[in-house]
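Action item from last meeting closed. Structure (137 res):
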């Protein structure tokens, strides 16, 4: 890996938000999956964007946006995905159980040393990774 930081000494960008796409009418399912199951707090969209549909959620120092695309143009992201870090293994395992109980796929993957993780899908088939450091409680 490189040393990091721009060569001119300026600051590097930070992640502000990630957006997942969903078809029209997605709001109730987004609130259930991202809000109730994942536990992300919903935040208000700016008034200028509210008419476009979708739902925004707080995610640590950033945000997760569920954005609406026309139904005939919607394709779920099956490879590209956000990776969401849990506070510890206990929280990760509880979330996996909650998702499985709700009917979401939970596919554990042991490919990374020092990390426990699983992949799931939101209600429209977008891939999500949930992970925690293997040394955490």
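Sequence:
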């Amino acid at each position: 890996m490189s040393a990091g930081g721009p060569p001119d000494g300026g600051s590097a960008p930070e992640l502000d938000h990630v957006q997942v796409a969903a078809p029209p009418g997605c709001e109730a399912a987004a609130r259930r999956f991202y809000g109730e199951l994942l536990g992300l707090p919903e935040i208000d969209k700016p008034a200028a964007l509210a008419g476009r549909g979708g739902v925004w959620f707080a995610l640590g120092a950033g945000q997760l946006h569920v954005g609406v695309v026309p139904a005939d143009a919607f394709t779920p992201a099956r490879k590209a995905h956000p990776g969401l870090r849990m506070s510890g293994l206990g929280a990760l395992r509880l979330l996996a159980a909650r998702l499985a109980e709700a009917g979401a796929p939970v596919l554990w993957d042991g490919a990374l040393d020092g990390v426990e993780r699983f992949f799931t899908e939101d209600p429209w088939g977008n891939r999500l990774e949930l992970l925690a450091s293997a040394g955490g409680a």
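Note appended to the action item: Helices lie at 27-37, 47-50, 89-101.
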